[in-house]
Amino acid sequence: MGQTEALRTDNVMVSPNHIYSLKMQKTGDLQLLKNGKTVLWHSNTAGHPGSYALVQGGDLGGFAVLSAGKQTLWSAKATPHDAVLTLTNTGTLNLIWGRTTVWTAK
Question: Are 77 and 100 in contact (CB under 8 A)?
Fold first, then answer.
């Protein structure tokens, strides 16, 4: 997931092997799932319907969950710019800047 993409309610990012997924729930909680059922990690942002996740560029660089009103509810480590979010076949969610992994969830 790059900087121009947002993960909105019921959108899903899927690992290449289709076992792991990152999904923004209707409640506003971003969840990393195994086989669509087992929660491996979550942003703990439930209670904020309409929230979305995105990789931010510029001075606000990093990965964040924002409310419908664009307030930051949760964020990962900041990066200068041009970071990407990847989901691997082992269920690891990585925020990568250049060749460096700056944040990981699994």
Answer: no
Asked if 50 and 9 touch (Cβ cutoff 8 Å), the reply is yes
**C-alpha to C-alpha distances, 44 to 13, 31, 59, nearest whole angstrom:** 18, 9, 24
Tokens representing residue 39 in the block? 């929660």
What is the SS3 assignment for 106? coil
Cα 63 from chain centre: 6
Sign of the torsion formed by the C-alpha atoms of 50, 20, 38 and 93: negative
pLDDT of residue 55: 86
Q: What is the pLDDT of residues 25-44, one digit of tens each?
A: 999 999 999 999 999 999 99
